[in-house]
Design brief:
alpha/beta, 23 helices, 15 strands, elongated, disordered C terminus
Amino acid sequence: MAIDDDQSKTCVVLGGRSFIGRCLVVRLLKLGNWIVRVADSAQSLQLDPSESKYDSPLNRAFSTGRASYAHVDLRHKSTIINAIEGSEVVFYMDDIDSCNHDFYFGYSIIVRGVKNVVNACRRCKVKRLIYNSTADVVFDNSHDIISGNETLLYSSKFKNLYCELKSQAEAHVLLANDIDGLLTCALRPSNVFGPGDKFLLPSLIEVAKSGWAKFIIGSDQTISDFTYVENVAHALVCAEVALASRMFIVSGKVFFITNFEPARSWQFALCMLEGLGYYRPIIKLPAVVVRLIVFLIKWMHSNMNFRDLKHVSVHNVIQLMSHTRTYNCSAAERHIEYSPIVSLDDGITLTVKSFTHLAKDLPSTRLGDLIEQSKMEELLGSGEVADILLWRDERRSFLCFLGVGFLYYWFCVCERRIISSTAYLLLLLMVVLSGYARLSPKVYGCSRMSPRVSVCSISRTIPCFEVSEMCMRSSVRTVANIWNAVGHVARSLAEGSDWSLFFKVVVSIYLFKLLIVNFFPTSLGLGLAFSFILFFVYEQYDVEIDGLIGIVFEIIRQCVVCVTSRIPVPTPSPLCINTNKPAKLKDQS
């Protein structure tokens, strides 16, 4: 298709390979009246598989000359001038990766980069500069924002370094308005999501994969505004058109951009996570508790000089779910004539389809979930013990519970020695059996059996205890494995090189002494009583309990690693080195 230079406008998309930049480039090319220069930090353009297709808008635009690529380094103004020379509009956006948790690098890219862009635009006589900011520049991470508008001041306490640097960059863009003929404005989208998202949905998925997936973090009543990425690209185009035609109303101004559909934060998150196969949490966990746990993990990681990105994702989700943040977009609707082109529900559907590679692996049918053995049933062997402890037959389980309670009372509560208790129990058992043998014919209305028939029937009813050879071999093998494992642990403790194992053994011995030696009757009674309760409860709420246990074990593991990392590794004594080596032979010459 031939390009009419009289009708087409040339623009530069700085950060054209970022999350929002990619969508903006495609939208500009679809409009048909733009010649687009994609400018980014990569030395050369690398197209994704979806963009490499012949019928993709970007690939087709590069082949026809409607799009080109330029390498820019925002820290050097000369590369920016080469990229924007001859254009009349510059769309500037940066990604959250620009910050990279490094203040100097983030400041040089975001703040100094904006200054270099503004100076380059003034030198190249660019007419309009539209900056993509964020709504979080007015959020102080402490107070809710309900229907906030553009009169809100910048926050005095930002939720992270990226938002603080973005506020400085946005202010510099607005101050540069109407200098040397350059008109500027800025947009503040809220919680941008969509295909290619590297922040919002990946954080939710990371939390869903961890032990936190079983909990609703914070309140499930908080409301937030979300913005689909195509709506942000549409708003940037609307701002350019309004800046060109209604310059005095739009220039030097900021506008909040949302989907016009405030939603409960957790409901929004669960819609996408359930679409990807993750289960819905049902247990609420206060945000302050999670925040303290995350702070503890971050503190331990900082003291051990290594980073774990899981707590970063949890921290991001806490910030999203802890406060209400809704914005009034009437100014954008009135002045730049913005309205969403993709609804929130459609945006969620499109986003879920684009993240199918991160979906949770699910069974092919729900029937498999129904007939699949539970963890407790598999652990208990799927036999009579599992049926009793999991209350498959309530009458049988209740009788066994009464029997266990009676044995505990007979041997532990009564102040008798074990031999006396056993003798009394055998005596009681003989009396009961003798009485039953005498009363059973009368109870059932049967005539007394002959001695021969009685003996034969009794011999058939007496259980025959027999241990198979395979079972015996398995038992001996188990004992041998336990013996070898104990020997390996003892050898490791003697070497003194594994402090983690040392702490595990010390804690285990202490618990054994505390529970078995000092409080054996109490521990045994609680164990027997709770065995009929805990197994059943765990089977009903295994997902939630696993999540809680995982969090507790992670905290304990981090504490152990933090303590053991500070213990110096013992060095062998010089007297113990090479003591077994043979002495060197003397020269016989």
